[in-house]
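Hey, sorry to bother you again with one of my protein questions. A protein chain has come my way and I'm curious about its shape. I'm sending you its amino acid sequence along with the backbone structure tokens. I owe you a coffee for this, so here goes:
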Amino acid sequence: MNDTVTHIGQVGAALFADLHCHTQFSDGSLSPAEVVSLAIERGLRVLAITDHDSIGGWFEASRTAAQARAAVGFPSLKIIPGVEINTAWLGGEIHVLGYFDPRVLELHESGGTSAEARRIAALDHSLNVLRHKRVERAHAIVDKLRGLGVDIVWEHVEGLVSGPSVGRSHIARALVERGAASSAREAFGLYLNAGAAAYVPNYNIQPVDAIRLIRDSGGVPVLAHPKSTDPEVLCDWVDAGLAGLEVWHPDHSATQTDTLLKWTERAGVLATGGSDFHGFGLHAELGAFGVDEERAQRLIGKLATAVIPAL
């Protein structure tokens, strides 16, 4: 790992922005307000709320950050509204992050009827369709687990869901609580990852579809935790509108991080990063991975000038 990578993304570094986290509006264990409070406590200055197929957490997070800014002694925390869309690719999954100009939060809160506000409403409608598909998939996974003799029932999984979106992380928690796995990581490895015993393929939305949906909504699409994705495929997706790669992520090795960073520099696209925080002890801790101020500002600048197609 080179010095630049170590400084920006390594666990324990002083980071400016965490650009990947989840709340109870998808499969995170904390509310948006709790996540924002934790981000302030940990000294972050920019936080992206990127729930799976849901934008519902944006507004509570934004209000909480605004309240903190008004309180004496609290630093300013900028909220970037985002989303993570799960897609199917070659028998596995590819996740695409979408980031949006923070001004859309103000438009929504003010009840604006601008083109941008209408596009966000259309995005939410599309995501609602995907959330219904997520429920169908989760039911299928539970049925498959029961067929394997695993002691799990749908009602248990459903009881762990606090928001509008259900995911494999909820099933993993249920498996741990039922004693079928010692940790969420083990649950994924034994049952839920692609190729594992109870894996059910994702619904049929492709990475390019997610990229286009985000761009058509006025957002900036970034490939989440790409690991060792084929560079030729990355080039195809950049041609389709992909604007960056998530370089710093807890699932990346030092070699993968270095390779991805060099690729973004050659391709002239954004290099982002985040913890993929889901809650205490569930993945990486909030703020453990992310980017420095310069890279955060590059993303924010891109958001402010994103090309929004005409209605």
